[in-house]
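Lab notes, practical 5.
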Amino acid sequence: MAGGVEDDVGFAMSSGNAVDQVEQGQLFLDLVLRNRFNRTILDRFGDLGIDDWWLTAGCLAQSIWNISANRPAEDRIDDYDLFYFDPDIRWNAEDKVIARVADLFSDLPIRIEIRNQARVPIWYRKKFDIEYGDVSAACDGIDRFAYRTTAIGLRKLHDEYRIYAPFGLEAVLEGTIIPNPVLPIRDVYAAKVMRWRKKWPCLKVMPWPDNPE
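Output from the prediction step:
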């Protein structure tokens, strides 16, 4: 869990006031679970027997922004992202998981994107012309999102929800988009926030830093 700490109620977030973290975590859960598709994915995914996985990114944040905009939680969400980690980086191994997920959720009218994070370094350089770095867990992909605001993972384990939020939850709850310049992908950030602002014009967007550390 890069950058996060985990407490006894299942929240893995950046260091800070523990009481505030628990309150934010409970509010976050209440909002994202109003999206029935989030709930269904979290309830069923454990049946696949994959240990290291997270429901992540837009389907969580956008559920919150929809509710803030007085729209149904499921409104305007293009897809639902699932990250998992499997050291078997063969393409056909990932393809089998994709097929199993498609079958498991075939009754839902949504698009689910599932990717083995161990395979990301294989194609990332070709797509973006930069090195992605080593990956040893599903949460490594969350840590490297272009935006800290949606760098959040959620899963259900033994009827308990687990939140992974290395940069905390305040930004997503407030609708503030904050860049994460751990990788030099300014253009990815700019394109994404432009699309988000068209759907949720009340979002506050922070600029990509000119000289990221």
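Observations recorded by the TA: The first helix runs from residue 18 to 32. The two ends are 21 Å apart (CA to CA).
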